[in-house]
Every structure is written in structure tokens, then in C-alpha cells.
Fold:
Amino acid sequence: MRHISAFAALAFAGSAFGQIGLVDFDGTELGLTGYSNPSYTYSGSGFGTNASLVTPGTATSTWVAGDSFWPMSRGNVGPNNIGMPFGISDDSVAPAAGNSLFANDTLGFAGTTLGNNGFFGVMDILNPANSAPISASFTFNIAGFSNLSVSIDFIAMGDYEATNDDAYNFEYSIDGGLFQPLFTSSIDENLSQNYTMDIGTVVNLGDPLFINSVMINDVYQTLTASVLGTGNSLTIRFTASGDADGMGFDNLRVDGVPTPGAAVLMGVAGVVGFRRRR
Structure:
């Protein structure tokens, strides 16, 4: 029986495909080894991706009202001690922290259905504190894994402008190599789509946002892209440019398959665990 168990464990480990990295902006920083974001300074626990801690007391920012490039939630004000930007928050039924009830609200994807769930929110990155495209980087440990992929939940609402250089792009780099495209945005100025506010108002806006040719709306959509190559460290760089329109993303996840050496170690660990339970 022990021989059969060992074989089964090794076979499973060699073919298992699973999560090796996750940032959910609610405190989970699985496999994360580094994070950088110049829009705010952070002094709390972890790397600074937890939206509930990117707030005064553990984070500060000189960005003004209506602007953001950081983890946020409806439950707390931002590191600039100001409520969620109106272009992100749906305050038609209940206001986000720092905001006021506005029944006639016609812009914002972060309504009550999101609760206090954290996400990375982007709004009006061209402002007195920042005059150029801005990037945030997430670095994960991928040692011992191959067949990598990245999944992200996207959400957005706005009248985006291709001529105004509205862009939200993700790239990846392995072990400090050249950055390669991962998720690329585009704007179709010949289309429009409907968005629904919490209060029930349906808003039609032109020029929707696309990510990897998928139209993004005010309901989270999960997109997945492959990462070519393997190594020890995977850096995902998110760069935003443009003005006035909001978008968000959540659950930045890295998946992969253990390489043969790692699979053997995982299999042996599984067998040891099995024997201890006999």
C-alpha cells in the first residue's frame, strides 16, 4: 500500500495546476515578495496591498480629491484622507466612507454589492501630484513552477477616450528580463454600453474599455493570460495613463505547475503526511 500511495502522490504533484500567488487587496499576499507604488507611502504590516490599511494612520498621499491609484474599499477613506472618487463610487443608495448620499448619481462601479471588499482603484491619474503615466509593480516567487498564467478580475465604468491616451496595461518580467505584454487595454469609440446604478438608473456611455479585446463593464469579469518562461521571480507591472475615467481590478492571481524537482519534493511531503496519519 505504501508503494501505491507514493506513486499516486508523485503523479498528482507532477500534474497539479494551482495557485502559487494571490493579492486580493483584503490582506492576502500569497507568494508576494515585493510591491511598489509611488502614489502613497505605507508604514503598516505586510507590503501595503490591504485596502483596509491604505488609509490614514498607516498610509499617506498628496493626491487630491477625485484621484486615486491604490487599494481601496467602500469602508474607509483613502491615504489622502478623502473618500472614494465619485467616478468610482456608486453613492446612489448608500455612500462610501467619506462621501454623501447622492440619489442622482450616474457614475461609479463600486456600489453596495461590493460591500467592504478591497480592490485596486484608478481614477484621474493626471493631477497636481502626478503629471505622467504611473506604474505599480507586484513581484511573486515562482521558483519551482512552470506553465504560468495570471488571472485578474476587472471592472470599469466611464466614457473612455482613445485620443486622450486612456490606457490600463499589465506587463510581466521574469528574473529582471524585458517586460512583455500581459493584459492590454483598448477603447472602441464607435460603441456604447449600459451600466446600472444601485438605485436602478441605467446609464448609457460611449467609448467602452476593452482588456485583451473583452469589453469591461460594472460587473467583475475574470480574464486569464499565459506567461511564457519560468524562473525564480515574476514581476507584474500595471501602468495607467489618461484622465478622468475610472477602473478597478481585484484578485491578482498567479497559477502554475510544479517543475519535476519541485513535484518530487511535494510528492515526498505528501507521502510523509500520509504515513503520519496511519
